[in-house]
UniProtKB/TrEMBL annotation:
InterPro entries: Vta1-like (IPR044538), Vta1/CALS_N (IPR039431), Vta1/CALS_N_sf (IPR023175), Vta1_C (IPR041212). Residues 16-158 form the Vta1/callose synthase N-terminal domain. Residues 169-180 have a biased composition (Acidic residues). One of its GO terms (biological process) is late endosome to vacuole transport via multivesicular body sorting pathway. Residues 161-229 are annotated as: Disordered. Residues 185-206 have a biased composition (Low complexity). The keyword Signal does not apply. Residues 239-276 form the Vta1 C-terminal domain. Belongs to the VTA1 family. This is Vacuolar protein sorting-associated protein VTA1 homolog. Interacts with VPS4B. Interacts with CHMP1B. Interacts with CHMP2A; the interaction probably involves the open conformation of (polymerized) CHMP2A. Interacts with CHMP3. Interacts with CHMP5; the interaction involves soluble CHMP5. Interacts with IST1. It is found in: Cytoplasm; Endosome membrane. The keyword Membrane applies.
Amino acid sequence: MAALAPLPLLPAQFKSIQHHLRTAQEHDKRDPVVAYYCRLYAMQTGMKIDSKTPECRKFLSKLMDQLEALKKQLGDNEAITQEIVGCAHLENYALKMFLYADNEDRAGRFHKNMIKSFYTASLLIDVITVFGELTDENVKHRKYARWKATYIHNCLKNGETPQAGPVGIEEDNDVEENEDAGAASLPTQPTQPSSSSTYDPSNVPSGNYTGIQIPPGAHAPANTPAEVPHSTGDIRLTPEDFARAQKYCKYAGSALQYEDVSTAVQNLQKALKLLTTGRE
């Protein structure tokens, strides 16, 4: 993919989007779709913060040039031309990063790459807001991931051993304020997990932890049969129910394009439950 024109110096007003822009740069070759939506999120957020100050207008103009160049390069990629596919792509990617980091955390393998994965997952969940409001599940994953990144980073920096797995997140702990700590001293380029700790959804233990639920099926081996819910009687589905079921089926189809069986199964199970019980 052709290199993008560099951006001007980031105005101080845009500090809150600096990590999203860094994530975009890191994914230009790794996953251009993710890079595109990170920049789109930064653009939309920057416009809300300050679109009038000269240095901010100049920065946003150059960022818009990058977005247009990326859109042209990606051509007819469905994840760009169809929002529902793009949203599924981003959610799948963020979930993979979250589950990889969570698996490493629960196994007591604390390293910069897992901290980076937790924090990047939280940033990508921010980016999902370009498609609309986040689900409660995404909100909880974002808070837990950002808090975990900060907690483990600070432990390692202070020479302490972090407690593996869920340790209870304080509801009044403002993780947003700690985002610089969570991102500090992390590698500027993402590194692939080593062969000894490669992300594998089937290795993630099932179960819930404080305020967070690992989505059903995300931890299941690919050949695990889905548990089919039984109809509870005369179910009357609304047009909205059908639309949501269709959305889950499209998410599943998108996941299969990337050979992500566990996420496809998860979304098909959601659609099946909705259609057979009238509830999500």
